[in-house]
């Protein structure tokens, strides 16, 4: 069951990463087009700075879950590397639970930002007058996805630890790349 859940998370986050990459490529093309148009005095598409900011916020919040599944987040493992396998497993679970707690706290505190925007019908103070619930909703949903992913990986890690599957635990929530000592 844990392997199915982890595989589904990996596939879902791979799709998210592809969508984010495509969004970044479109943003770069939009900015480049805007720069070229302005350079030759043909006007501007307008809003490239605003839209690129929204895309970056979305990429950041959604991309964190992708990095977590790939075990690409930075972890300082000076102590962990000196421990035996059970100690390393405990450190991995501890790191995952702390990450999960922090992400849940951030997601919890992001909701009031979106909620106030929805209540007030806030719009960006820019020429585009973007309804702010759109970029904030995408940003908030990225934090929710990160929280869901972190919670699932924490539970997968705990299940592996409880079953004594240390290799599976290392593969799911361990340090992504270790330096041989």
What report would you give on this structure?
The chain has 181 residues and is mainly α. It has one domain (2-173). It contains 5 helices and no strands. It is elongated. It starts with a helix and ends in an 8-residue tail after the last helix. The mean pLDDT is 92.
Name the descriptors.
mainly alpha; 181 residues; 5 helices
Overall mean pLDDT:
92
Number of structurally distinct domains: 1
The radius of gyration over CA amounts to: 20 Å
Number of helical segments?
5
E-strand count: 0
Q: What share of the residues does DSSP label as strand, in percent?
A: under 5%
Low-pLDDT parts are: none
Give me the secondary-structure topology:
Elements: H1 2-39, H2 48-69, H3 85-120, H4 133-162, H5 166-173
Helix pairs in contact: 1-2, 1-4, 2-4, 3-4, 3-5, 4-5
Summarize the structure.
By secondary structure, the protein is mostly helical. The chain has helices at residues 2-39, 48-69, 85-120, 133-162, 166-173.
């Amino acid at each position: 069951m844990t392997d199915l859940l982890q595989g589904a998370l990996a596939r879902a986050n791979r799709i998210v990463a592809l969508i984010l990459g495509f969004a970044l490529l479109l943003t770069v093309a939009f900015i480049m087009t805007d720069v070229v148009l302005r350079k030759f005095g043909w006007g501007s598409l307008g809003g490239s700075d605003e839209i690129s900011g929204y895309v970056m916020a979305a990429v950041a919040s959604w991309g964190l879950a992708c990095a977590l599944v790939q075990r690409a987040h930075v972890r300082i493992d000076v102590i962990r590397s000196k421990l035996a396998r059970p100690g390393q497993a405990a450190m991995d679970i501890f790191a995952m639970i702390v990450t999960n707690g922090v992400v849940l706290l951030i997601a919890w505190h992001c909701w009031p930002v979106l909620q106030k925007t929805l209540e007030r019908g806030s719009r960006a103070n820019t020429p585009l007058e973007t309804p702010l619930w759109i970029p904030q909703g995408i940003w908030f949903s990225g934090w929710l996805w990160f929280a869901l992913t972190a919670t699932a990986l924490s539970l997968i890690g705990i299940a592996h630890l409880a079953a004594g599957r240390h290799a599976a635990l290392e593969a799911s929530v361990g340090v992504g790349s270790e330096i041989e000592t």
